[in-house]
Amino acid sequence: MRNQRRYSMVAVLVTGALALAACGPGTSPSESAGGGASTAESAAPHSDLKIGVVTDVGTVNDKNFNEYTFVGAKEGAAAIGAAEPPVTVPKDSSEYASAIQAYVDQGYDIIVTAGFNLGVATTQAAHDNPDVWFIGVDQGPPCVNEEGLPDTTFACAGDAATLLPQFVALSYQEDQAGYLAGIAAASASKTGTLGAIGGITLCGPCIRYIQGFKLGAESVNPDIKLVVGWVTESDFVKAFNDPVTGKSFGEQFLQQNPDVDVLFQVAGKTGNGVLDAACEAGIYGVGVDVDQALSYPNAASCTITSATKSLVLAVKTDIGKIVDGTMTGGDDHWDATRDGIGYAPFHDLASALPADMAETLDAAFAEIKAGTLETCPDKCGDITTLQ
């Protein structure tokens, strides 16, 4: 492969730098801060590998998938001594493929793409360019046919790990993050009725988020009621990239379910509209994937927490594993054991929750990490458990 020698050389440099740092003389904090270069500094890793990032539409500084994917790539590049990655922000979905191809044409070694919406374009590029590494954030496991091409029929007859050995598709244990959010939601509820709105019934991660949310809420109040709605059964754009539809759907949902006083959105940008509906109704909202009090400040006034994924950590870690030769293609799964999920701070709404809420959530996280707390039913990912 064209990059095999380059990866090997970088691995040697990184390993050598770490070994020298470990064997070198101790240094006091004051000596580290100034004066001559330390042994570790003089042997800092260096890499000529080229890393590029393609985000989803919008802006790179969105406090969401775009920004945290880019930050992860920058930290990963810095850790191996590579140049800071450039970032491309497509103007719309029609530019996904061309943006990725532009990096391929320029000889980039690792291409990182941000979010579920770029999954098909990234899978196609990985098929067409087997010598390039791809990291698809929140895109795993990819559904491919027997040739390794994207399978829009969802038959998924091909083994992506075998057919696309340099495509790393990051996935997360959404039910674990949902469980933590459910604890917070049930603790804030006064009516004992929660709501959850998912983007599309075909979305397994959405289902797992809500399954975990339900179990987490029931751990606080076994009699709590959860009402679930879905924006659509077939339209992915409406499900995840249509905040206007999200707001109108949220408003109708709350009109039909007036007892709901905490609403969990699991619908991407469409869910931003759901949070708007929650705020205007005077109830609390729970965000998804990232800290939505930051990513969507319009709804910060009512967003008590968010079920989060560790995007920066995952991207940075996998760049390092590609370089040291330990990365393999296929689904790269992030759960509590890898600190891959979590919950967002309560910001200005801490008073809506018990004073020991953070301690309660941290204790639950520790149990999840230890494997002593179940966060999903037996039929995990099966929508029938929510009906």
Summed up, what is this model?
This protein is an alpha/beta fold.
**In CATH terms, what is the fold-level topology of the largest domain?**
Rossmann fold
Low-confidence stretches: 12-41
Q: What structural category arises from helix and sheet content? A: alpha/beta
Mean pLDDT: 90
Computed CA radius of gyration, to the nearest angstrom: 22 Å
Shape: globular
Order of helices and strands: HHHEHEHEHEHEHEHEHHEHEHEHEEH
Main pleated-sheet profile: 6 strands, parallel
Q: Name the CATH class of the largest domain.
A: Alpha Beta
Number of strands: 12
State the fourth-level CATH superfamily of the largest domain.
Response regulator
How far apart lie the N and C ends? 50 Å
Strand order of the largest sheet: 2-1-3-4-5-11
Write a concise keyword list for the protein shown above.
387 residues, alpha/beta, Rossmann fold, 6-stranded parallel β-sheet, 6-stranded mixed β-sheet, 15 helices, 12 strands, 42% helix, globular
Please tell me about this protein's structure.
The protein has about 375 residues and is an alpha/beta fold. The chain folds into 2 domains: about 5-15 and about 45-170 and about 310-335, Rossmann fold (3-Layer(aba) Sandwich), CATH 3.40.50; about 175-310 and about 355-385, Response regulator (Rossmann fold). Helices cover about 40% and strands about 15% of the residues. The protein has 15 helices and 12 strands. It has helices at about 5-25, 30-35, 40, 65-80, 95-105, 120-130, 160-165, 175-190, 205-220, 235-240, 245-255, 270-280, 290-295, 310-325, 355-370, and strands spanning about 50-55, 85-90, 110-115, 135, 165-170, 195-200, 225-230, 260-265, 285-290, 305-310, 330-335, 340-345. Strands 2-1-3-4-5-11 form a 6-stranded parallel sheet, with helices on both faces. Strand 3 (about 110-115), helix 6 and strand 4 (about 135) form a beta-alpha-beta unit. Helix 8 packs antiparallel against helix 15 (about 355-370) and helix 11 packs across helix 12. The termini are far apart.
